[in-house]
Design a protein that fits this description.
Chain A: It comes from Bombilactobacillus folatiphilus. Chain A: This is Asp23/Gls24 family envelope stress response protein. Chain A: It holds the Pfam family Asp23. Chain A: Belongs to the asp23 family. The complex is a heterodimer of chains A (121) and B (555). Chain A has 121 residues and is an alpha+beta fold. Chain A has helices spanning 16-28, 41-44, 82-101; strands at 2-7, 10-15, 33-36, 59-64, 67-77, 105-116. Chain A has a single domain, classed as Alpha-Beta Plaits. Chain A is built from 3 helices and 6 strands. In chain A, strand 4 and strand 5 form a beta hairpin. In chain A, helix 1 crosses helix 3. The radius of gyration of chain A is 15 Å and the shape is elongated. With 555 residues, chain B is of the alpha+beta class. Chain B folds into 4 domains: 8-229, Alpha Horseshoe (Serine Threonine Protein Phosphatase 5, Tetratricopeptide repeat), CATH 1.25.40.340; 239-321, Alpha-Beta Plaits (2-Layer Sandwich), CATH 3.30.70.980; 335-450, Phosphotransferase system, mannose-type IIA component (Rossmann fold, 3-Layer(aba) Sandwich), CATH 3.40.50; 452-554, Hypothetical Protein Tm841, Chain: A,domain 3. Chain B has helices at residues 8-24, 26-32, 42-59, 65-79, 82-99, 107-123, 133-146, 154-175, 177-182, 187-202, 217-233, 265-275, 297-305, 349-357, 374-384, 399-408, 421-429, 437-448, 490-501, 519-532; strands at residues 245-253, 276-283, 287-294, 308-317, 322-323, 338-346, 362-365, 386-392, 413-415, 452-458, 463-465, 468-470, 475-479, 482-487, 508-513, 537-542, 550-554. In chain B, the strands form 4 sheets. In chain B, strands 14-13-10-17-15-16 form a 6-stranded mixed sheet, with helices on both faces. A 5-stranded antiparallel sheet of chain B has the order 2-3-1-4-5, sandwiched between helices. In chain B, strands 7-6-8-9 form a 4-stranded parallel sheet, sandwiched between helices. In chain B, helix 19 crosses helix 20 (519-532). Classes of the chains: A alpha+beta (121), B alpha+beta (555).
Chain lengths: 121, 555
């Protein structure tokens, strides 16, 4: 599946992996996120923080009625207001997808998979 | 009296003044907001966050600074709003952890607390983006570290903190390209500077006066434009835009008769986000401006009208890149609200442009006869959407209808009784939009006397004026309403008329070339005038006025 844009010269397909990367980069820009987590914690080991190349394992993208729905799996730092951080992720992801792809985003679902306790706490 | 330590009393004071200073400048912070999402709410978010911290501290029942720090951190955490709010709460969480055990703070403790705040703040993010609030917090803390050994008073530490924060804030555009593009410093960083300045005030330092800041209409527009460009740049091609109409509206909140809902930013923004993309909503107490790309502009209008009257509408079809004409049943488009309207009666395209370049807001076209009706003037004042108005009739015959207009309109309006185009121009040079109406009227009216106006035209019939015998179609020169010269050579007549107008104080001659005049002849007239009196400077402008091929003014 992918986002398809019809132009007068032909068709542009943007694969869901690319969208997932964009989502991952957008989410990890947000203050309070210390990492992306795998959506399959059982299979991939618990709370393993993904590195940049694997962001796609922490983002699920699918299309419904021509709109893009993304699920983002994150790990937050201890001590921040999680609800607010998630809202910031939703805002930023939606904004980035719409400006970069011009693709309407229906939903951004955020799953907090873990919390990272920092050294001094 | 030098403050050597912070007790509970000073601590509460610091939070109070920090919160107060941020609140006063929240709108200014909003106006800077372009990162991470340009939605113009950073100031509002930070303010709500910090208010929540202050409220908690204010209600706390303890005299132990360490405990107050805990209370502050918790209040900020509970009230954290937006990215900037989350970062702020984290900075003060680190700050309060460092002072947990202390019932008062020495300058050294304070420096360490700020350092601890920065450390905690940097730990809670995967990729610390430089050029943001983090950079400002770090710059402040490093500046304080630098004075840790010689600082004997709390105020010295806070001075260093504020100084360091300001220096770091100034570097943010170099660190974050998006800031440079729009030409702003980081909004969250600016918010933190306001908080720190409040702290400094509380411990005896002084800061520059508060600027009770409100982004003006133009700045709001700039923000909308920035959002529009950012979103448009990233489209593949205009043919493929799903939402083809770039729609902007401005709503005057709560203005009857259409307002039936209370405005709530979140709800408003959310509803519109369903209608289109590239959405930007900026609002203050009275006005909300919206920029959105949508297929259904009509829905945006309908929704906006629920909250007040639509003051401005703009639709661009992004596919064919020209403005679509709004159908007649749409609400009338009204100008931006402005302080002053300066309304002048002139005729001729060139003169209209000239007047606009001199700062006139509305030009009433006088037509051939230079005689607009009272109603024309009233309409011009109404449509200007200004708080006060000045009328320049530029003709003795119009003063009456202008006076009538003053009586009818709702806003304070005065007349500067200019009798000619040249007088009107001179009066405009004395206009100062930062001064009150009466002073402007007085200054502008006084300026009228400094200029003499001459008109060159053709006689429409034979007549005798004083010693002059004038035949039909003769060229005549009229100075301030009286015919002073006649002849058949335009350069000669103009020069003779100019000589009548000059005195020893004259410096500048302006020639306005009419629809029946030409630039070449105007240059000849100019040459003749300078040859006759080398003291004078001559300016030539294209005025396109009817009836008078040349208007000549001497100042």
């Amino acid at each position: 599946m992918a986002v398809t844009i019809q132009t007068k010269y032909g068709q542009v397909d943007i694969s869901n992996e690319v969208i997932a990367s964009i989502v991952g980069c957008a989410a990890t820009d947000i203050y309070g996120i210390v990492g992306m987590a795998s959506k399959n914690q059982i299979r991939d080991g618990v709370n393993e923080i993904l590195n940049r190349d694997n962001y796609t394992r922490g983002v699920v993208v699918h299309q419904k009625d021509n709109k893009t729905i993304v699920d983002v799996y994150i790990i937050v730092g201890y001590g921040v207001k999680i609800s607010e951080v998630c809202r910031n992720v939703q805002n930023k992801v939606k904004y980035n997808l719409e400006t970069m792809l011009g693709a309407p985003t229906a939903k951004v679902n955020v799953y907090v998979q873990g919390i990272k306790i920092l050294e001094e706490d | 009296m030098v403050l050597e330590k912070i007790t509970a009393h000073e601590f509460i004071d610091m939070i109070r003044l920090g919160s107060h200073r941020l609140e006063k400048n929240a709108q200014f912070v909003n106006s800077l907001n372009v990162f991470p999402v340009p939605d113009g709410d950073t100031g509002t978010n930070m303010n709500l966050t910090f208010q929540s911290g202050y409220k908690a501290v204010n209600e706390a029942d303890t005299k132990h600074v360490g405990e107050l720090g805990q209370v502050l951190a918790k209040g900020l955490l509970m009230g954290a709003r937006g990215n900037s709010g989350v970062i702020t709460s984290q900075i003060f969480r680190g700050f309060s952890k460092s002072i947990e055990q202390k019932d008062s703070l020495t300058p050294k403790d304070l420096v360490q607390a700020f350092a601890s705040g920065v450390q905690t703040a940097y730990q809670t993010v995967m990729k610390p983006v430089e050029g943001t609030i983090l950079t400002v917090a770090r710059g402040a803390s490093e500046a304080a570290q630098a004075v840790i050994d010689q600082a004997t008073s709390i105020e010295q530490v806070m001075q260093a903190i504020v100084q360091g924060a300001k220096v770091a804030l100034a570097t943010t555009p170099d660190l974050l390209p998006v800031l440079k593009e729009v030409g702003v410093v980081d909004s969250g960083g600016q918010g933190l500077v306001f908080i720190y300045e409040g702290f400094l005030q509380a411990v005896g330092g002084s800061v520059t006066d508060d600027q009770a800041y409100q982004p003006d209409a133009q700045e709001m527009d700039e923000m909308l434009n920035a959002a529009h460009h950012q979103s448009v740049q990233t489209q593949f091609s205009n043919d493929d835009i799903a939402n083809g109409f770039c729609t902007e509206i401005m709503v005057n909140l709560g203005e009857q008769p259409t307002s039936d809902e209370r405005f709530d930013y979140e709800t408003f923004q959310h509803t519109l986000s369903e209608i289109g993309d590239s959405l930007l909503v900026v609002a203050d107490e009275d006005v909300v401006k919206v920029h959105v790309h949508t297929q259904r502009p009509q829905q945006v209008f309908t929704y906006g009208r629920k909250f007040g009257s639509l003051a401005k509408i703009k639709i661009d079809n992004m596919r064919i890149q020209h403005e679509t004409i709004i159908e007649n049943d749409e609400p009338k488009v009204v100008a931006e609200p402005i302080d002053y309207a300066v309304i002048a009666v002139v005729s001729g395209i060139g003169l209209e442009k000239l007047y606009q370049s001199l700062g006139v807001t509305t030009v009433i076209s006088g037509g051939q006869t230079m005689n607009p009706s009272t109603n024309d003037i009233v309409e011009a004042i109404k449509n200007s959407n200004a708080k006060r108005a000045i009328i320049l009739p530029n003709n003795g015959n119009i003063v009456m209808s202008a006076k009538q207009a003053c009586k009818v309109v709702k806003i304070p309006t005065v007349i500067v009784p200019s009798k000619s185009i040249a007088q009107g121009m001179t009066a405009l040079l004395s206009f100062d939009e930062n001064t009150d109406l009466e002073t402007n009227q007085q200054m502008m009216t006084e300026a009228l006397a400094t200029v003499k106006s001459g008109q060159i035209t053709h006689a429409v019939r034979d007549s005798e004026v004083g010693t002059l015998k004038i035949k039909k179609d003769d060229l005549i020169g009229i100075v301030d309403g009286e015919i002073v010269i006649n002849g058949d050579d335009v350069v000669q007549v103009s020069l003779a008329m100019c000589q009548v107008m000059q005195d020893e104080d004259s410096e500048v001659v302006t020639i306005l070339v009419g629809a029946q005049g030409n630039q070449e002849t105007a240059r000849q007239i100019s040459q003749a005038i300078v040859n006759d009196n080398s003291e004078l400077e001559v300016e030539i402008h294209q005025g396109d006025q009817p009836v008078y091929p040349y208007l000549i003014a001497v100042e």
